[in-house]
């Protein structure tokens, strides 16, 4: 595609990337104002659908496994404990993705999604797998590119303290760490956050996170709450304000320039009636303007303009799960309804039991492929919406 920037030099240009490559990719996204969709995968079928879309549109992609998705990868009938199944399943998914991803020709960030306090043994298991994968001298590469820890339901102080400990372990593992502060409404992987009140994060809270984590490593990103909701819900319950991220960036930038102890305006978000976006300077260098790498959670159902506003304020990753689930199911439903007569019996139809065999209709490769094609389209739409399409044109 003409007019696209030249992609950065990575140690690995296709397949799962790790270490400094992850940071270089996020810096590239920040500089050229695009975000990489993070697609939740629960099977080899959803994995290849996401990869196919990235290949078609020449874009980097993030594949992520949730705690429940990991256990599903292991199989619902597997005889393992809850966290053991999550660890085994996510490691199996990682090995599959690592093996197939290079064939799709684009860089892939292999990530684990929300880890809540009660599931920390899962995160520990994955980090241990990363450390083991690096070998006895610790010089090899980790299994995963990146993990997410979500202790936002704890008090902020406890959240930051524990997240910091996990960032120390991530340094040893050689992985990126995404954290969450404030609460994203709605339901994610069976956890309901709807009644919580911390739906907008204050700039001073982001600064606390940034300052404490930066002492350990630069390789982290923050999911802040700006009225976003996990899943697709009734409109109007909370107001989405992606421009609040601009207030965070402005505050952090001022703190970095003037010193941590300096008095800086804008530590707290004003009351409703005084709340308005910052005036924008389109010529300002996005790297200087946006010191924090932000992640947009609960992206399903949001408008394109809202994504672009968030991307302008340093969002480099957008999570999409619910929309993908619907796209996948949408095609299966249509397939089953249109072909119902040929799917009720292995041969013929109920009215004509002597008709031709129906193998061509009930073979999982027929209807699952329809699901994949529908999901490919939805991932492609996201790549275009987030300006990621064409950002990995290498030749
Ligand atoms: Zn979240």
Automatic annotation (TrEMBL):
Residues 262-290 are annotated as: Disordered. Zn(2+) 1 binds at residues 114, 230, 297. It comes from the Eukaryota. One of its GO terms (biological process) is gluconeogenesis. Residues 273-290 have a biased composition (Basic and acidic residues). It catalyses: beta-D-fructose 1,6-bisphosphate = D-glyceraldehyde 3-phosphate + dihydroxyacetone phosphate. PROSITE patterns: ALDOLASE_CLASS_II_1, ALDOLASE_CLASS_II_2. It is an enzyme of class 4 (lyase). Zn(2+) 2 binds at residues 150, 180. GO terms for molecular function: fructose-bisphosphate aldolase activity; zinc ion binding. Belongs to the class II fructose-bisphosphate aldolase family. This is Fructose-bisphosphate aldolase.
């Amino acid at each position: 595609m003409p007019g696209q920037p030249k992609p950065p030099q990575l140690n690995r240009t296709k397949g799962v990337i790790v270490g400094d490559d992850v940071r270089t990719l996020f810096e590239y996204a920040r500089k050229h104002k695009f975000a990489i969709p993070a697609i939740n995968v629960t099977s080899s079928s959803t994995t290849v659908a996401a990869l196919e879309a990235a290949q078609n549109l020449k874009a980097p992609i993030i594949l992520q496994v949730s705690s429940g998705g990991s256990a599903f990868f292991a199989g619902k009938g597997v005889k393992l404990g809850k966290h053991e199944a999550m660890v085994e399943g996510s490691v199996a998914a990682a090995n599959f993705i690592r093996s197939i991803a290079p064939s799709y020709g684009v860089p892939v960030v292999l990530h684990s999604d929300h880890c809540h306090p009660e599931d920390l043994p899962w995160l520990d298991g994955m980090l241990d797998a990363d450390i083991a994968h690096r070998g006895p001298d610790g010089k090899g590469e980790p299994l995963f590119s990146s993990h997410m820890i979500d202790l936002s339901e704890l008090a902020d102080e406890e959240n930051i303290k524990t997240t910091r400990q996990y960032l120390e372990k991530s340094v040893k593992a050689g992985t990126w760490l995404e954290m969450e502060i404030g609460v994203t409404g709605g339901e994610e992987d069976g956890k309901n956050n709807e009644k919580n009140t911390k739906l907008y994060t204050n700039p001073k809270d982001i600064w606390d996170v940034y300052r404490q984590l930066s002492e350990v490593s630069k390789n982290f990103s923050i999911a802040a709450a700006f009225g976003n909701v996990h899943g697709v819900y009734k409109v109007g319950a909370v107001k989405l304000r992606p421009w609040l991220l601009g207030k965070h960036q402005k505050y952090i930038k001022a703190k970095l320039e003037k010193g941590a102890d300096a008095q800086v305006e804008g530590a707290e978000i004003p009351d409703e009636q005084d709340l308005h976006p910052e005036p924008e300077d389109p010529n300002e260098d996005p790297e200087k303007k946006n010191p924090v790498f932000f992640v947009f959670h609960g992206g399903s159902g949001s408008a394109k303009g809202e994504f672009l506003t968030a991307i302008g304020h340093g969002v480099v990753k957008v999570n999409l799960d619910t929309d993908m689930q619907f796209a996948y199911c949408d095609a299966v439903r249509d397939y089953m309804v249109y072909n119902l007569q040929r799917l009720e019996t292995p041969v013929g139809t109920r009215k004509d039991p002597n008709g031709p065999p129906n193998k061509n209709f009930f073979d999982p490769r027929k209807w699952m492929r329809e699901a994949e094609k529908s999901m490919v389209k939805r991932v492609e739409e996201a790549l275009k919406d987030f300006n990621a399409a064409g950002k990995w044109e290498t030749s």
